[in-house]
């Protein structure tokens, strides 16, 4: 994968995070890629859908599995702006995603390199390759601005 395309997929996820802000959702965006093509997109929709499971990753996973007609996302990569929580890490493992690329860490709710470190648990049956810190400054800035504006 070229460096430009590598940055572009996280750019797509960041665009989705920005779209989340416009509808009052926490700015997290995600895309799922197979063979260089985006097959799933999502941003947080918990308030819009009144669904606590409608995290960006879950929305993208549902779209990608629908696109492929399969509950397994073998050979697919997830690009997400924020370190996944435990629920999303579980879905990533169950979907058998090949790689996880994420932007900024989530010291409070993250479950990959923070918190419970889900993929390191002996009961975790699948661990994707994990790449952290992709466009982390841009992802963190979106979150900081969103929460700062909510407090003002």
Describe this structure in words.
The chain is α/β, with parallel strands linked by helices and 152 residues long. It is built from 5 helices and 5 strands. Strand 3, helix 4 and strand 4 form a beta-alpha-beta unit. Helix 1 packs parallel to helix 5 and helix 3 runs parallel beside helix 4. The mean pLDDT is 95.
In short:
The chain is α/β, with parallel strands linked by helices and 152 residues long. 41% of the residues lie in helices and 20% in strands.
Tally of individual helices? 5
Please list the strands of the largest sheet in the order they lie side by side: 2-1-3-4-5
What is the approximate shape?
A: globular
Main beta sheet strand tally, sense and closure: 5 strands, mixed
Entry keywords:
41% helix
List the SSEs and their pairings.
Layout: H1 3-22, E1 29-34, E2 37-43, H2 46-49, H3 56-68, E3 76-82, H4 86-95, E4 99-104, E5 129-132, H5 136-151
Parallel strand pairs: 3-4, 4-5
Antiparallel strand pairs: 1-2, 1-3
Helix pairs in contact: 1-5, 3-4
